[in-house]
Amino acid sequence: MSLFVVATPIGNLGDLSFRAVEVLRDADVIACEDTRVTRKLLQAHDIRTPTESFHAHSGADAVARWVGRLAAGTQVALVTDAGTPTVSDPGAALVAAARAADIDVRVIPGPSALTAAVAVSGLPPEPLLFLGFLPRQGRARQTRIGWLNQLPVTGVLYESPIRLPATLRDLASALGDRPAAVTRELTKRFETVVRGTLPELAERFSEPPKGEIAVVIGPGAGPGPSSWEQVDQALQAGLSEGEPPSRLARQVARQTGRPRAAVYDRLKGMKASNKRD
């Protein structure tokens, strides 16, 4: 009984490895994010193994059923629509559950948008911080972006085309003139890599592009205090979520590198202004 974690092409179907083809053919069943997407890949390589859905909305019951089948001796190949399963992908839940049940898990490495984006960006490849998909709003989003202000590292994130303009504006506001690259449709016919500072890229992508997006952000100078504008944004986000003032001031001070007392004074002024409004 084994669960095979199989990396699949992020665009060009020819990027599937010989070993991956062999494993997909020998498996009893392929667990895939979208059977329609995976079917195109299988047809291109004459793979006739049956497929079944396993996606972000499958839930704990579905994970338990897959683990039960693995425990009963079924050989399962896990794939995502593109790239390596478990990386910003629901397959992580199945791998964790299989490990917990002492089921053998093996990886068949291959394409990954993360490493591909870094490779073509021209930005320092290490140290590297992978941010995945950013939270869509609020303090959690500001905190995730704020990590790049606290560490002198290159950051990588995935983003949907429709949300890319807002994300680039938020990154430019929080991180300033950091060098960055927007990579789009990697390994596909219309692959593009656009480099520039974050403000330049925010202006360039003021309208949503088409295709799959990965953004690479170059390293800053290292830990340093955020601007007071950034402090205010983080405070406002916390207030809108109903965060207790004392805890909010402590968290924002730690996130931005500003003194807690000064942050708390600013928070009190913000609350007083909100009441007058």
Summarize the structure.
This protein has 277 residues and is an alpha/beta fold.
Describe how the helices and strands are arranged.
Layout: E1 2-6, H1 18-26, E2 29-32, H2 35-44, E3 51-53, H3 59-71, E4 76-79, H4 91-100, E5 104-108, H5 113-121, E6 128-133, H6 138-150, E7 154-159, H7 164-175, E8 179-184, E9 192-197, H8 198-204, E10 213-217, H9 228-240, H10 245-256, H11 260-276
Helix pairs in contact: 3-4, 6-7, 6-9, 7-8, 9-10, 9-11, 10-11
Polypeptide structure, described:
With 277 residues, the protein is α/β, with parallel strands linked by helices. Helices cover 45% and strands 18% of the residues. It has helices at 18-26, 35-44, 59-71, 91-100, 113-121, 138-150, 164-175, 198-204, 228-240, 245-256, 260-276; strands spanning 2-6, 29-32, 51-53, 76-79, 104-108, 128-133, 154-159, 179-184, 192-197, 213-217. The strands form 2 sheets. Strands 3-2-4-1-5 form a 5-stranded parallel sheet, with helices on both faces. It has a 5-stranded mixed sheet with strand order 6-7-10-8-9, sandwiched between helices. A hairpin with a 7-residue loop joins strand 8 and strand 9 (192-197). Helix 6 (138-150) crosses helix 7 (164-175). It is globular.
